[in-house]
């Protein structure tokens, strides 16, 4: 048995912008969305049709959502998966659109953490029942993302990716909103697939051929992965930075007190070097 | 004799049956979305992956010479089922467009909706339902046990519990011999008893379908009902009830009654107008490769000194067990036997294989011994295999002997003959 968790971006704003960008002509936005959701439904059904014991978990991530888990094929009372998935996504988007939150970044961490826990739970239950250790992959997570930016959740997500890797959970990312360095890392760490979709017509094909447990996977899907870390202070990707010796937080400029753990650095830094960060900008405002 | 091969061959028995059907009937089945979904589930992962890449990647064509070995066996299997067709031009093969369409529309609708059964939601009596659920599971298991008991110990009392259709199927399959009250189990029947529940139900169904085909009746009607029911299988199937379809033909109705008798579905009263699916039916959705998932704990403990303890009073289990063990003590809820060379050889002589014996012991293991790493001591399983190999020491080959040559000159011919 395999568990598959599909994490769909629940930001209504982003879906709207996506539909507008990908439509063929004005007024066709609805077509684009229908197509995208239909692909998700088909993908879920194909996963369920691979084996009777397969489990499907559908999550949406976004702001102001009361319910993260939209559909669980094992526990749900309604066996009609197609209508449940469509209803779930629609409800999530509606809830998000009325939440009044206009932040332009995804809030993936909490949902991803729940998904990993659920898959772990299903895997341990499964092994107890059949008394056999399931070899290889325990489960998969497919993230269908729209917003490439994850704001302040960078370090949280990195930790989650590593723990997913530790539990043999593979994360595949299908990005509809352009390349995202962070999600690329996620796929690279967990031996998953990272795909950017340019045309909505490609979505079902990519999902079916690359993101299912039975898919043939080649490791050469991406050659260079941007492994730069984001700094704690401004969420900028930095290649050279300062690292807190206590909590290993990455900072783009020197700070006397670590913003993440509060450690105080008593090192006397040469005068010239202390000047530099203020020149770069994004530093404390100049005193009058 | 595909029955003998079924245990170790990779292909699910239903697929083998499908390959043996005539082309027209198979074509009619493949056009049905629910059938496509069901069939897809039974394929091995590599075949599934091949089909998926063919469906979604229109540029993908099968060129046999570019494929590696395991793929070729998938392709030949799919070709036998008419799912992959010869393109004619430049030695390529394409996916059958009818199957493609069927599978896609099935995938879009989802397995439950394509089964076209209407579930009935009863919210009001949940407490009562809980109690009933246990009932459904227990009763369905009892029904299937009845069949097995009839097979293992044909007698006046067990004959009453099975219908004439069941008896016909078992007789046609060669599991029993004789007619009327004088019925005896054959060695093939014993092998059937040793199979895991999944394989038992499948091979019974296949024999039923074979019997129908032999009598010249189309199996499409029956498969239609059966597969659609199997698609409805969900976690805890016994909690859901479905409406009885009024458009069923008389033959389909009879078939449903037969399924009820086997314990695959449960109908409380015929006039209620709804039926429950049982966990036994769920066995039909499992392909061979996930057989191990249905492991239920049994009552048998095997010790390293070849002693077998069975904590059961079921006469069926004991009858099966005594076919390859030498029973020493029998108490009312527990029996003791010893696996001896003679007793195992007796079983081997009637055509039961060592693997079947070992897998029977494994599937019916006591939970206590399941918790250890090796449910059956390795010494015992090895010894049973060795006893089987003992019988294969001689290899027979056709040969000719030339003798009594008159002249000494041709004695070299003798020499060649000996080589």
TrEMBL record, chain A:
The reply to whether Iron figures as a keyword in the UniProt entry is no
Keyword match Zinc: yes
Matching entries from InterPro entries are given as: TFIIH_Tfb4/GTF2H3, vWFA_dom_sf
**A cellular-component GO term for this protein:** transcription factor TFIIH core complex
What the entry lists under Gene3D superfamilies is as follows:
von Willebrand factor, type A domain
Instruction: Spell out the molecular function terms from Gene Ontology.
Output: zinc ion binding
Sorted alphabetically, which keywords does the UniProt record give?
A: DNA damage, DNA repair, Metal-binding, Nucleus, Transcription, Transcription regulation, Zinc, Zinc-finger
Q: Where in the cell is it found?
A: Nucleus
GO biological process: any one?
regulation of DNA-templated transcription
* Assembly and oligomerization: Part of a TFIID-containing RNA polymerase II pre-initiation complex that is composed of TBP and at least GTF2A1, GTF2A2, GTF2E1, GTF2E2, GTF2F1, GTF2H2, GTF2H3, GTF2H4, GTF2H5, GTF2B, TCEA1, ERCC2, ERCC3, TAF1, TAF2, TAF3, TAF4, TAF5, TAF6, TAF7, TAF8, TAF9, TAF10, TAF11, TAF12 and TAF13. Component of the 7-subunit TFIIH core complex composed of XPB/ERCC3, XPD/ERCC2, GTF2H1, GTF2H2, GTF2H3, GTF2H4 and GTF2H5, which is active in NER.
Q: Which family does it belong to?
A: Belongs to the TFB4 family.
Instruction: Sum up the protein's function in the record's words.
Output: Component of the general transcription and DNA repair factor IIH (TFIIH) core complex, which is involved in general and transcription-coupled nucleotide excision repair (NER) of damaged DNA and, when complexed to CAK, in RNA transcription by RNA polymerase II. In NER, TFIIH acts by opening DNA around the lesion to allow the excision of the damaged oligonucleotide and its replacement by a new DNA fragment. In transcription, TFIIH has an essential role in transcription initiation.
What's the protein name?
General transcription factor IIH subunit 3
From TrEMBL, chain B:
Keywords per UniProt: DNA damage, DNA repair, Nucleus, Transcription, Transcription regulation
From the record, give the transmembrane residue ranges. none
* Location(s), subcellular: Nucleus
| A GO-annotated cellular component | transcription factor TFIIH holo complex
Residues in Transcription factor Tfb2 C-terminal domain copies: 382-409
Q: Name one GO biological process term.
A: nucleotide-excision repair
The primary site where this protein sits is nucleus
Which GO terms fall under molecular function for this chain's record?
Answer: ATPase activator activity; double-stranded DNA binding
This chain's function reads:
Component of the general transcription and DNA repair factor IIH (TFIIH) core complex which is involved in general and transcription-coupled nucleotide excision repair (NER) of damaged DNA.
Provide the family line. Answer: Belongs to the TFB2 family.
What name does UniProt use for this protein? Answer: General transcription factor IIH subunit 4
What gene name is listed for this protein? WBGene00304672
């Amino acid at each position: 048995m395999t568990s598959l968790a599909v994490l769909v971006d629940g930001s209504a704003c982003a879906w709207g912008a996506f539909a507008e960008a990908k439509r063929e002509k004005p007024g066709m936005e609805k077509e684009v969305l229908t197509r995208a959701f239909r692909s998700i439904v088909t993908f879920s059904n194909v996963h369920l049709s691979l084996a009777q014991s397969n489990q499907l978990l559908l999550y949406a991530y976004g702001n102001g959502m009361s319910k993260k888990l939209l559909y669980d094929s094992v526990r749900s009372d309604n066996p009609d998966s197609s209508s449940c998935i469509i209803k779930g996504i629609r409800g999530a988007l509606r809830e998000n659109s009325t939440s009044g939150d206009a932040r332009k970044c995804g809030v993936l961490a909490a949902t991803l953490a729940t998904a990993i826990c659920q898959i772990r739970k299903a895997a341990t239950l499964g092994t107890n029942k059949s008394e056999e250790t399931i070899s290889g992959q325990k489960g998969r997570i497919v993230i269908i993302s729209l917003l490439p930016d994850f704001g302040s959740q960078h370090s949280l997500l990195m930790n989650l990716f590593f723990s997913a890797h530790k539990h043999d959970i593979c994360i595949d990312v299908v990005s509809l909103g352009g390349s995202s360095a962070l999600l690329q890392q996620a796929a690279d760490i967990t031996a998953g697939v990272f795909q950017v979709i340019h045309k909505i017509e490609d979505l079902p094909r990519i999902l079916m051929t690359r993101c299912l447990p039975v898919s043939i996977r080649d490791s050469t899907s991406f050659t260079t992965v941007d492994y730069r870390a984001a700094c704690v202070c401004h969420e900028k990707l930095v290649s050279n930075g300062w690292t807190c010796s206590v909590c290993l937080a990455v900072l783009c400029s020197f700070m006397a007190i670590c913003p993440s753990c509060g450690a105080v650095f008593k090192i006397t830094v040469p005068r010239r070097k202390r000047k530099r960060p203020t020149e770069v900008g994004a530093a404390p405002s100049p005193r009058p | 004799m595909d029955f003998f091969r079924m245990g170790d061959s990779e292909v699910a028995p239903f697929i083998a049956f499908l390959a043996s059907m005539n082309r027209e009937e198979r074509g009619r089945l493949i056009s049905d979305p629910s059938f496509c979904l069901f069939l897809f589930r039974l394929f091995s992962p590599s075949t599934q992956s091949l089909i998926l890449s063919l469906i979604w990647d229109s540029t993908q064509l099968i060129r046999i010479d570019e494929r590696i070995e395991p793929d070729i066996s998938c392709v030949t299997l799919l070709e036998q089922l008419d799912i992959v067709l010869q393109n004619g031009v430049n030695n390529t093969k394409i996916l059958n467009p009818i199957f493609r369409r069927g599978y896609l529309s099935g995938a879009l609708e989802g397995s439950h909706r394509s089964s076209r059964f209407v579930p009935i939601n009863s919210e009001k009596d949940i407490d009562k339902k809980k109690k009933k659920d246990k009932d459904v599971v227990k009763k369905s298991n009892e029904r299937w046990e009845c069949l097995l008991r009839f097979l293992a110990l044909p007698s006046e009392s067990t004959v009453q519990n099975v219908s004439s259709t069941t008896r016909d199927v078992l007789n046609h399959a060669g599991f029993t011999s004789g007619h009327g009250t004088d019925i005896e189990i054959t060695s093939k029947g014993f092998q059937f008893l040793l199979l895991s529940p999944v394989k038992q139900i499948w091979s019974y169904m296949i024999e039923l379908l074979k019997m129908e085909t032999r009598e010249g009746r189309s199996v499409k009607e029956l498969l239609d009902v059966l597969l659609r029911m199997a698609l409805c299988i969900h976690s805890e199937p016994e909690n859901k009830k479905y409406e009885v379809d009024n458009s069923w033909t008389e033959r389909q109705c009879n078939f449903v009654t037969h399924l009820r008798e086997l314990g695959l579905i449960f109908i409380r009263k015929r006039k209620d107008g709804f039926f429950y699916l049982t966990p036994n039916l769920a066995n039909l959705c499992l392909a061979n490769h996930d057989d191990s998932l249905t492991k239920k704990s049994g009552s048998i403990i095997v010790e390293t000194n070849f002693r077998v303890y069975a904590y059961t009073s079921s006469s069926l289990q004991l009858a099966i067990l005594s076919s390859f063990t030498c029973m020493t003590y029998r108490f009312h809820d527990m029996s003791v036997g010893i696996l001896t060379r003679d007793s195992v050889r007796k079983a081997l002589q009637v055509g039961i294989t060592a693997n079947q014996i070992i897998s029977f012991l494994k599937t019916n293991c006591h939970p206590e011994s399941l918790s250890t790493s090796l449910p059956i001591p390795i010494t015992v399983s090895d010894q049973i295999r060795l006893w089987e190999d003992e019988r294969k020491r001689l290899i027979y080959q056709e040969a000719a002997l030339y003798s009594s040559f008159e002249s000494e000159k041709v004695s070299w011919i003798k020499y060649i003959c000996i080589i």
